[in-house]
Design brief:
By secondary structure, the protein is an alpha/beta fold. The chain folds into 2 domains: about 120 residues, Response regulator (Rossmann fold); about 100 residues, Winged helix-like DNA-binding domain superfamily/Winged helix DNA-binding domain (Arc Repressor Mutant, subunit A). It has 8 helices and 12 strands. The strands form 3 sheets. A 5-stranded parallel sheet has the order 2-1-3-4-5, sandwiched between helices. Strands 6-7-8-9 form a 4-stranded antiparallel sheet, with no helix packed on it. A 3-stranded antiparallel sheet has the order 10-12-11. Helix 2 packs parallel to helix 3. The chain is elongated, with a radius of gyration of 18 Å. GO terms for molecular function: phosphorelay response regulator activity; transcription cis-regulatory region binding. Pfam families: Response_reg, Trans_reg_C.
């Protein structure tokens, strides 16, 4: 039997298409038409992944995401409206793992499903004894501890993996497509806006001034580097 996926969306036509596609891919799929029903079904039986629409009447996707994340680390893929970066950032803050913007094609969604299931089932990546410390930011990849002036910073798993990849390659320029492949997988290699959003979100958490980055530098139009501006 394949992985079990819960689809929570009040758009019955779209939901039926997604369910049909996923079942055709060998997954066992359960659908819910609103947030309350989705949460009840999630709590009643185990799932390996949740596809969650944000804009639903009653209990919206943000609240469903918050409640699911409070009790489980199951991968959550959000479905968001086009141009809703604020919604994406809020969802990531609440613990969502990924997002797909409506309208979307079904094949790319299937690729995202496969990638998220693969990451969830893979062992946690290890980055060795890599550390960085200054008067503001401390990073210890061995203990997976990030702190700002001694206070722990909470990162999502993907934010941590992105930062860890940059820190491990400190001073080197990582081309955006290669960075997407290393952190998220080959399915994401062309999603440059996806990486830009994650970089922006990560800067909000670790930079003293996100608009003038001290740590994560843009290098040319398509590259990034962890190169602290005041490092020797």
């Amino acid at each position: 039997m394949g992985n079990r996926i819960l689809v929570i969306d009040d758009d019955s036509v779209l939901s039926e298409l997604v369910v049909y596609m996923l079942r055709g891919g060998g997954y066992e799929v359960v659908a819910a038409g609103d947030g309350e029903e989705g949460l009840r079904k999630f709590q009643a039986e185990p799932f390996d992944l949740v596809i969650l629409d944000i804009n639903m009447p009653g209990m919206d996707g943000f609240e469903v995401c918050r409640r699911i994340r409070s009790q489980s680390q199951v991968p959550i893929i959000m479905l968001t409206a086009q141009g809703s970066d604020e919604a994406v950032v809020r969802g990531l803050d609440l613990g969502a793992d990924d997002y797909v913007t409506k309208p979307f094609r079904l094949k790319p969604l299937m690729a995202r499903v496969r990638a998220n299931l693969r990451r969830a089932q893979a062992p946690d990546p290890t980055f060795g004894r890599v550390r960085y410390h200054d008067d503001y930011l401390s990073i210890d990849l061995e203990s997976q501890r990030i702190a700002i002036q001694g206070r722990a910073v909470k990162l999502t798993p993907m934010e941590y993996q992105l930062l860890a990849t940059l820190v491990k390659n400190r001073g080197q320029v990582l081309e955006a497509r290669k960075l997407l492949e290393q952190v998220w997988g080959q399915e994401y290699a062309e999603d440059l806006d996806y990486l830009r959003l994650y970089i922006w979100h990560l800067r909000r958490k670790i930079e003293p001034d996100p608009d003038h980055p001290r740590y994560i530098q843009d290098v040319g139009p398509l590259g990034y580097s962890f190169s602290p501006a005041d490092a020797p």
